[in-house]
Structure formats: structure tokens, C-alpha cells
Amino acid sequence: MPQVPIVVLVSGSGTLLQALLDACADPAYGVRVAAVGADRDGIEGLARAERAGVPTFVVRLRDFPDRAAWDAALAKAMTAHAPRLVVTAGFMKILGPRGLAVAPTVNTHPALLPSFPGAHGVRDALAHGVTVTGATMHLVDDGLDSGPILDQRAVRIQPDDDEASLHERIKVVERAMLVEQVGAMAREGFRVEGRRVRIGS
């Protein structure tokens, strides 16, 4: 089976990346992590890639005069690996137009969008008092967690949950969802119809 090349962008521990790397070990999955990029040095996400023999690159915002220059450099670094798909896996920077133009880009978010977008989706859901939250996978556009939704998985909030315990349970479904949907997109193709993403050509 042909292996669809993807670039994964990380900013931290890389647990979502690891789930993808593990899935890619099976040739039938149909995906190859061509490179892992980051916005900072010395993170476990990069170490995971290096242990797996995957090329890495780092493009730090502080090394550029403005976000546009950083975005152009990030786009160039990604393009060098010819990805058919880009996955932002805990990547804590918003891509600009150059970065988004490299390839369709997907992201996961620890809440049921459009509720609780932004960097504190788990904390915000708890503070609001909802009884069900979860994880969302969506295409990335130029807004904040606002692109067309690919999939959502619900997680019930327990009475004794705090931010850490709830986030850990969300991460379990988030990883499974990411692996399943990236594989389906690679093997079957996808198309966007308005706000809906259809898997299959």
C-alpha cells in the first residue's frame, strides 16, 4: 500500500505524535510521518521523532522579525518534506496563510467545538459546569479552532474531576480519533462540502 507522507507539528510531550508513529508501524495504515516540526527546542515530541528515525526541524518564532516571516520559514521547512497532510498535534502556534497553504491541515481540540475554543478548553468546560465534553478533530482554517469538523467524541465529566483528570480521559479518545481519521483520510481521500468533511473520494 502506498504510504501518504504527513508532517506533524508539536510543541510539547508528543503523545499524539506517538500514537501516529505507533500506527504507522503497520504498513496497512497507509501513512508515513515524513517529518516532525516544532516551535521550540528540547521537547519530548522531537525526542520521540528522533528515536523513531523521523527527520525533525525547529522554527522558533523568536528567531524572526515578525509572524509573517516565521510563517514563511515554517512553510518552507514543511514543503521540503512534500506532505499530503499536516497534523498539528499539541502545536501551540496559529499557522498563517503560508503555512496553511502547504497541505490540508488537521488539529484536535480537547472540547466539543464550537464550545470552548482556545488554549483552555478543558478548564473552560469545567468552569462552565457542563456534564459532557470531549474531543474534536477539525480542519484548520485562519480562525481559532473554527474549521470544518471531521469527528467528535464525547467524554462525560465526573463529579470529582479536576482539569488534570478530565484532560487525561479526553486525551485517550483524542489519540484514538486522530489515528482513525488520519488513516481514513490518507487511504480513502476526503472532500469538503461547506462545513462538512466527507471521507472518501
TrEMBL record:
Its EC number is 2.1.2.2. Pathway: Purine metabolism; IMP biosynthesis via de novo pathway; N(2)-formyl-N(1)-(5-phospho-D-ribosyl)glycinamide from N(1)-(5-phospho-D-ribosyl)glycinamide (10-formyl THF route): step 1/1. Belongs to the GART family. Pfam families: Formyl_trans_N (PF00551). It comes from Barrientosiimonas humi. This is Phosphoribosylglycinamide formyltransferase. The active site is at residue 109. GO terms for molecular function: phosphoribosylglycinamide formyltransferase activity. The lineage of its organism: Bacteria, Bacillati, Actinomycetota, Actinomycetes, Micrococcales. Residues 6-181 form the Formyl transferase N-terminal domain. One of its GO terms (biological process) is 'de novo' IMP biosynthetic process. HAMAP family: PurN. It catalyses: N(1)-(5-phospho-beta-D-ribosyl)glycinamide + (6R)-10-formyltetrahydrofolate = N(2)-formyl-N(1)-(5-phospho-beta-D-ribosyl)glycinamide + (6S)-5,6,7,8-tetrahydrofolate + H(+). The record marks 145 as: Raises pKa of active site His. The gene is purN. Catalyzes the transfer of a formyl group from 10-formyltetrahydrofolate to 5-phospho-ribosyl-glycinamide (GAR), producing 5-phospho-ribosyl-N-formylglycinamide (FGAR) and tetrahydrofolate. InterPro entries: Formyl_transf_N, Formyl_transf_N_sf, GART. Keywords: Purine biosynthesis, Transferase.
